[in-house]
Amino acid sequence: MPNTLPVINLMGPTASGKTALACELYEQGNFELISVDSALVYQDMDIGTAKPSKEEQEKYPHHLIDIITPLQVYSAAEFVDDATRLIDQIHAKGKIPILVGGTMLYFKALLEGLSDQLPSADQQIRDQIMAQAEQLGWEDVYEELCRVDPVAGMKFKVSDKQRIIRALEVFRLTGIPITELQAQQPKNVAYRYIFHNYALLPDRLELHQRIEQRLNDMWEIGFLNEVESLIGKYDLNPDIPSMRCVGYRQALNFLINSDKSHNNQHIMREQALFATRQLAKRQYTWLRSLRENHKFTTFLTLKQAQEDLRICYR
Known about the structure:
Blueprint: E1 6-11, H1 18-28, E2 31-35, H2 54-59, E3 62-63, H3 76-92, E4 96-101, H4 104-112, H5 123-136, H6 138-148, H7 150-155, H8 161-174, H9 178-182, E5 194-200, H10 204-220, H11 223-233, H12 248-257, H13 262-293, E6 296-299, H14 302-312
Parallel strand pairs: 1-4, 1-5, 2-3, 2-4, 5-6
Helix pairs in contact: 1-14, 3-4, 5-6, 5-8, 6-8, 10-13, 11-12, 12-13
């Protein structure tokens, strides 16, 4: 028998305001919050992930925050297991789960299963890779692959051009190594939920301004100090999943491999800003793909979302 209680999926790019919206809904109804964020799962990574503060988490408790250390790995398959278990527990209490976050792979896995999670070919990105190879040589392209996906780098040779193109294509589209995606175990759960899908898709210019302001705030409240503390506590390297989170890789490289000059710090901040904007671009791409296959309500502004959802779930 299908479960008639809804599951609210609240998605959007980074800095779009979705967490604030979820917390506002939480205050006015019989809800529980489940985080759908591959960065918020890590303990001790608070500032750079824009994690809700301890006080905010006490007021608005979120499931699936701070569940592993930065040295551990958390897969989409594990997320589906944890999320479905939590959804059932929340429904058993007579409450409605709100799943909120920007990790679109997790939402896709929940909505569709994991048997076909690799993105389709993107000719524009393939052309970019080919142009890079023609200008700089296949050695340069292969070295990039080794940086972003060391496991694929060990499997492939420089002469494996088609496989290298596909691996880099997938990484540029998703921000996740193809070997990590392929390692996910196929998982097609017979879903019994009624999903209510909502997407916050603000104007790109406005979003870029919000991203820049958020990053500036992070630097001001001690993001670099946080990464220094992580270096002291854990055996970190740029290739582990936690350090692929935007901002952390750039900060880690700055602290370990540079002379920490003012100029290098400026370069690092610009690199982090660019990486965060690229993340938002990938999130928009994922959302467009999901909206092709699932019913969505899309909001262009946070105010519009607040007004409409307040009416729907009051």
